[in-house]
Amino acid sequence: MPARAGAGANIVNEYATKRYRSNLINWGMLPFQLNGAAPFGLGDYILIPHVREALKGDLQNIPAYVLGEEVKPFALYMAPLTSDEREILADGCLINYYKH
Known about the structure:
Blueprint: E1 8-12, H1 18-26, E2 29-33, E3 45-47, H2 51-56, E4 62-67, E5 72-76, H3 83-91, H4 94-99
Parallel strand pairs: 1-2
Antiparallel strand pairs: 3-4, 4-5
Organism: Faecalibacterium duncaniae (strain DSM 17677 / JCM 31915 / A2-165) (Faecalibacterium prausnitzii)
Protein name: Hydratase
């Protein structure tokens, strides 16, 4: 597998359509979900360590951190992914997936 697991992420409470979520995956963006209010704002930096390892797990409690003057931990999750979707994200996008 390549060294990176995607170029970005999308964090929402709920996806309005399966198509939008599928498009994110195909472009290599991680489709994160969040319970409750967002602990971050526009311009904040978010660290999600070991995201490649998280893709191999159950995806229900992914540690994340808002970086700033103080570090604020919070949790993300992803709705279940197929094995192909996991591989697409690990490869970086659908085009890279088809190269293999």
